[in-house]
Amino acid sequence: MRYWLMKSEPSDVSIDDLASFPNQSVAWYGIRNYQARNFMRDQMQVDDAVLFYHSSCDQPGIAGLARVSRLAYPDETQFDTSNKYFDPKATHETPRWLNVDVQLVKKTRLMPLKEIREYPELEHMRILQRGNRLSITPVDPREYEFILSKL
DNA sequence: GCCAACGTTGGC
DNA sequence: GCCAACGTTGGC
Predict the structure, then answer these.
(1) 20 to 30 Å CA-CA from A84: which of A5, A76, A97, A123?
(2) Do A98 and A74 contact (CB within 8 A), yes or no?
(3) Is residue A25 part of a domain?
(4) Which structural domain, as residue segments, surrounds residue A128?
(5) What's the pLDDT at A94?
(6) A42 burial class (0-12, 13-18, 19+ CB within 10 angstroms)?
(7) Are strands A98-112 and A25-27 parallel, antiparallel or unpaired?
(8) Is A137 part of a structural domain of the chain?
(9) Residue A141 falls inside a structural domain
């Protein structure tokens, strides 16, 4: 069992969007970074815990708890020429990009990025490091438990 | 809108 | 395999 932080732009999929979807679940499409893809492919298991993070928005921060509900499988958007995530080098025979499914566990209060920065217990989190851009990052179990205790 | 950081691309 | 150019991310 591992712990993850996954960034989503709320203008694309917010925590409330997730809550409104069938099964309160979504395919985590659009990951086009190999390191993030490899986390999904090689490490994510069903029931891994996810911190659902809102990025590129007015109030960046942790917005809820989720879980991995399906193992990695090919991301359909890579095959769709009309999709912004279309990848001409991907084929059904040799897909490049994968996604897991993520299911809502519970919406929480928003823990703003600013607050996350204030806790010495969380100072090593990947999202706080200079220049971090990865949209999927592993979270230490102690960090996860600490965050839970503050939500 | 700015800009630092960093990943990817492609010519050599 | 190097590396400059370019594109993207994401907080501010």
Answers:
(1) A5
(2) yes
(3) yes
(4) 3-145
(5) 86
(6) exposed
(7) antiparallel
(8) yes
(9) yes
CB A34 under 7 Å to nucleic chain B: yes
Question: Which portions of chain A are predicted below pLDDT 50?
Answer: none
| Residue A151 located in a structural domain | no
Q: What CATH code is carried by the domain that includes residue A62?
A: 3.10.590.10
Size (chain A), residues: 151
Say yes or no: Cβ of A33 under 7 A from any atom of strand B: yes
pLDDT of residue A93: 85
Q: pLDDT for A84-102, tens place per residue?
A: 898 888 888 889 999 999 9
> Which residues, 6 or more positions from A75, have their beta carbon under 8 angstroms from its beta carbon?
A27, A29, A30, A31, A85, A95, A97, A98, A99
Q: How many domains does chain A have?
A: 1
Buried b or exposed e, range A104-141, using 16+ CB within 10 angstroms:
beebbebbebeebeeeeebeebebeeeeeebbbbbbee
Distance A19 CA to B1 C1' (A): 33
